[in-house]
Amino acid sequence: QKEVEQDPGPLSVPEGAIVSLNCTYSNSAFQYFMWYRQYSRKGPELLMYTYSSGNKEDGRFTAQVDKSSKYISLFIRDSQPSDSATYLCAMSGGSNYKLTFGKGTLLTVNP
Amino acid sequence: DADVTQTPRNRITKTGKRIMLECSQTKGHDRMYWYRQDPGLGLRLIYYSFDVKDINKGEISDGYSVSRQAQAKFSLSLESAIPNQTALYFCATSDRTGRLETQYFGPGTRLLVL
């Protein structure tokens, strides 16, 4: 079993839809949970992070962590065409806190 | 100016050739990383360096080598390129605030091995 599993999609939604992106993980040492956004032909960039369990909101984006289920989510409200990108979950914990990435989910928001 | 730069941005080479990909950063970070990204496989860590004298293999280091010339420079070499090394390569640096590690990625190098 891979440490981090992420459905690669692709996911296509109409503008204004609520988008849900998810990852599962197996390593209980993970404490920091991040979402990176990668536009086409660009490097990934950090979108938001959460420490341990709970929710975090930033504008139209909400990150949720359920450590008991080893499941994290990113919700995008009122999705816009500019949200079209690949979204990668990433996690860290343990002795050196290196990041472990999911494979990424390709999202397209259609006008 | 970009904080993490990679050169070249695109490269076509032939099987058996030696090539070097270079990464420079102005963020002042100690930690630097090389990843490759392939469709369906995501980001895979090749090598990482926590400081100039500390270099470590990642999950897919075979066929690659690295050099950390200075805090700001980290190069990746393919000693004898093969077609399955065709991929998008990213350099990243990281900043640790307490236990949170935030990685900052360069724009990537698109490599094609014929």
Task: Give a short synopsis of this structure.
The complex is a heterodimer of chains A (111) and B (114). Chain A has 111 residues and is mainly β.
What does this 3D model show about the protein?
The complex is a heterodimer of chains A (111) and B (114). Chain A has strands spanning 4-6, 11-14, 19-25, 30-38, 45-51, 54-58, 61-66, 71-76, 85-93, 100-101, 105-110. Helix content of chain A is 0%, strand content 58%. Chain A contains no helices and eleven strands. With 111 residues, chain A is mostly beta strands. The mean pLDDT of chain A is 92. In chain A, the strands form two sheets. In chain A, strands 2, 4, 5, 9, 10 and 11 form a six-stranded mixed sheet that branches. A five-stranded antiparallel sheet of chain A has the order 1-3-8-7-6, with no helix packed on it. With 114 residues, chain B is mostly beta strands. Chain B contains no helices and eleven strands. In chain B, the strands form two sheets. In chain B, strands 2, 4, 5, 6, 9, 10 and 11 form a seven-stranded mixed sheet that branches. In chain B, strands 1-3-8-7 form a four-stranded antiparallel sheet, with no helix packed on it. In chain B, strand 9 and strand 10 form a beta hairpin. Chain B starts with a strand and ends with a strand. Classes of the chains: A mainly beta (111), B mainly beta (114). At the A-B interface, strand 4, strand 5 and strand 9 of A face strand 5, strand 9 and strand 10 of B.
